[in-house]
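S.,

As promised, the LLP run. Input:
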Amino acid sequence: MVLSWPYENVDDRLFIDGVSSMDIARRYGTPVYVYSENLIRKQFKKLNEKVRKYYPKTRLLYAAKANTNINILNILREEGAEIDAVSPGEVFLSLAAGYKPSQILFTGTSVSYNELIYLLDSKVRINVDSHSQLERILDIEVPELISIRINPEFGAGHHEHAITAGPNVKFGIWDQDSVDVYNRALKAGVKNFGIQMHIGSGIFDVGSYLKASTRLLEIAKKIHDKTGISFDFIDLGGGIGVPYKLEDDQINLDDFMERLFGHIKNKLNEYNLGSPEIWFEPGRFFVAEAGIILTRVTTVKMTPYKTWVGVDAGFNTLIRPALYGSYHEIITASKLGGKLKKYDVYGPLCESGDVFAHDRDIPEVSEGSLLAIMNSGAYGYSMSSQYNSRPRASEVVVKDGKDYLIRERENFEDLLKGQIMI
Ligand code: LLP
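Predicted complex:
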């Protein structure tokens, strides 16, 4: 079993940055999300260093939807991240974590009038998704800066639901409307402009970004030529993939960024677009690998077909396998070196889809074993629910051999919270 830092095999037990997974499970109960602060910092530094190497005027916005625990937001703020927020709630949390309004770019879709009032009052930057959204913004107040989300007619991603551009996708403004939208904002008195795309999630090939950014920059040129607008920033969105299987390779960031920025610099020159800032909005890249879910085996049962391993986490805890068929590595944290056995790992929810893995080779387990579901730092807690009236799990940060509770486990009272008996 190949584990890489901060995950270590110590006497056949999983340790995370020097902390025993068994101790965490005992102390905080299971299921529990565990995040390595040092790996989050390392991921940010790694990407930041690479993008700046090829284009110094780059900003990294953390796509908060991946994990909005205020401590995670804070760690990334300390590293120099800004924020991509997609709901007023994410704006609220980011402000609470100490981000300045000018460090937050809101990219919403189907945004209501009341939400726009909150966003404009908060003074965050707004990335507009439709003509009508722009009209409603201008009706409330004319902001200094407007960015427009463009649908570059091409998307990519690990699953159909994670492709966020192209003809069948709801997001963004299309080429044919783009000049009108910028003109409208310009005439209303908007002074500064950005342009944005986000083509999808879980992308490994630079070719998808090259193709989409080619279209984005063509559209940017047309807007520039027809309106005279210069862009302060060009935002290429998020979506950089991370390996979900232990044997999979990391993206070669040097190769990726060299090719992407080489292309962008050529196009900026060719189209006379000056040297705007280039922004990225990764979520998963910063936090996915830094998080795991520890879950206890409650049941081992044999059927004529399979050996089923029941755990106390379900798709209420991590929905990615059920929703996208996503692969998450599962290891036996309490006995890493056990003999491999084929198991189907399932959760406690009353749905047949509540399964984390089918026919998976996992070091042998028995009831009471502790399992770790890897790569759960992104879209784990943030997509969790109370389905089947199961209180949400707690979250813990580990750093340099110490652990810190960063969110309490919910209890039954939380299931009643807000309900009104009539
Ligand atoms: N920017 C925008 C506007 C987005 O909508 C997203 C993700 C991101 C950035 C960050 O994407 P990332 O770098 O994390 O791939 N819940 C799914 C992914 C869908 C995310 C949707 N938007 C998952 O668990 O894979």
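The mean pLDDT is 97. The pocket of LLP is lined by residues 63, 65-66, 84, 107, 162, 164, 198, 201-202, 237-240, 281-285, 320, 378-379 (CB under 6 Å).

- D.
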